[in-house]
Amino acid sequence: MKIAFLDRDGTLIFEPPDTKQIDSIEKLKILPGVIDGLKKLQADGFQLVMVSNQDGLGSATFPKKCFTAAQNEFLKRLKKEGIEFYKICICPDRKEDNCNCRKPKTGLVDSFLKKENINREQSFVLGDRATDMEFAQNIGVAGFKMQTNGAFPRIATVQRTTKETNINIACNLDGQGNFRIDTGLGFFNHLLEQFSKHSLIDLAITARGDLEIDEHHTIEDTALCLGECLAKALGERKGIQRYGFLLPMDDTLVEVAIDLGGRPYFIFDAKFTREYVGDMPTEMIEHFFKSLSDALKANIHLKVRYSKNTHHQAEAIFKAFSKAMRQAVDADPRAPNILPSTKGIL
Questions:
Q1: Do residues 145 and 132 lie in contact, with contact meaning Cβ atoms separated by under 8 Å?
Q2: For the chain, give me the number of helices (H) and strands (E)?
Q3: Catalytic center residues
Q4: How far apart are CA 6 and CA 178, in angstroms?
């Protein structure tokens, strides 16, 4: 079972900056993208679980009937759209009460986690506070942080299991460059961390491959999974910049151009003077991006103009690609929800 653990106030509905309470139906405002985002998660097989701290719920300053009226109306509106929560967990305590159920503590979900067969590598927490990210860490799933009262982020997960590898990837295109990556290959981890950091795409990657044979299958299948995950998060690719970079790193200059137009093509112009950097074969860098291009359905042109250091060359390639991706996936404020093509499809 895949679970999307979702915060409520500031994540799904508008949180008033002054009172931080939604205590009437009049204050209920569903945030942009929430309906479509939740529908997409359900269609992708996620069960939705709400986990929310409601300070002083049931007190004189926050009567339970006021909360219930707004909460029921929220759930009613979602149900009309075909969206239902598998479980709803509410903590009514204040921080000073020092209870065991208030996030980031896990008391609200401990029994649920023990009872249900949850795929933690494919599950995640979405919230707008640091405590939500701590909560994600405490229950052993990826954490995706969004801006308070911001638009619902573009999130996707992919799992690929073969006789050679088992890959789990979760991504948030609208992230902050946070990552949790373990492929069993130190330098490959480092390059993927660079991609996340410089693209601002949150990534959670766990890859288990037949490294006792060689590195090929692990790197190739991670690339295929990553491309598929990014493509899934992009969805119909409406409202994106679409195109995206020259990036210098000491002695190295790399040029990357990308088009997320839905047609894969790949040009790679780089020569390596070392067979390995750390535990990663340099020949697999080209193969990684070719596999990524195919799965992402992207046109990628990558050229190393000059370099004297193979480590810098490999790292600059991933950083330049990251910057190009960041530019290409960013929302275009002048063309929201508009497909960046005259063909009518990407």
A1: yes
A2: 8, 15
A3: 7, 9
A4: 18
Pinpoint the alpha helices (H) of 235-346.
283-296, 310-329
Residue 246, pLDDT > 80, answer: no
Architecture of domain 158-234: 2-Layer Sandwich (3.30)
Q: Which residues contact 312 (CB under 8 A, 6 or more apart)?
A: 249, 250, 251, 252
- Overall fold of domain 246-329: Ribosomal Protein S5; domain 2 (3.30.230)
Question: Sheet harboring 155-161: ordered strands across?
Answer: 155-161, 165-172, 202-209, 179-182
261 vs 89: CA distance, rounded Å = 41
pTM: 0.88
pLDDT (tens digit per residue) in 135-170: 999 999 999 999 999 999 999 999 999 999 999 999
Given this chain, do its domains 2-150 and 246-329 carry the same CATH topology? Answer: no
